[in-house]
Design a protein that fits this description.
alpha+beta; Protein Transport Mog1p, Chain A; 2 domains
Amino acid sequence: MTDTLQIRFVVPPAFHDLPVLGTEEQVAEQLWEVVCEVLASEGDDLRAGWAALLAGLIPSMAEAGTIYAGLCLLDVEGRPSTASVVATLSPLGGLGPARAVDGLRDGLSRARPEATVTELALPAGRAVAVIDGVSTPVGGETLATSVIQVHLPLPNESQLLSLELSTPCAEDWELYSEVFAGIVRSVHLEFADLPLSDSAPVPAPSPAPEVESRIRAAFG
């Protein structure tokens, strides 16, 4: 099977694309354009601070196999709200998609017992979803972040596509989880020489009763 697989997905226009590929000069130029667009009403000092903060994150994202990163800053009922979306590619380890899904589900359930881990049947194939919360110390305080991840083994049997949405705005969890569900359902896989013909959803086992409501709330 050819490894030339094209991956497409749709991210809402509210998310501003962050540059993760290109030369240092290209990334810097594109990043400044994004910051000026996002912070159009702010001064250059604040923009420069944001640009420096984001620039410090990009090298590690590139090393992690990031193929897309997007940042959303919204005004929700008069208050600021933010979320980020990241997509990465990593080696699958030679496992076929079916075995990889089973292994991911079982491995993540053991490694992250506090998280909700279940299977999803997506238009692009079977995947594993993880809903979790992350606490990060920031300036003597703790920043709580809600996270949704979807891990989709690709049919080239060599790569794993992982998509993640995170937000520190718990009150907007329903909004962002619905947005993320749309992104995940929009994933389209196509080989360079022939459209993928077996990407219809594959029925997945129902999640356990205690997690079903959370999965339904996040993915519909």
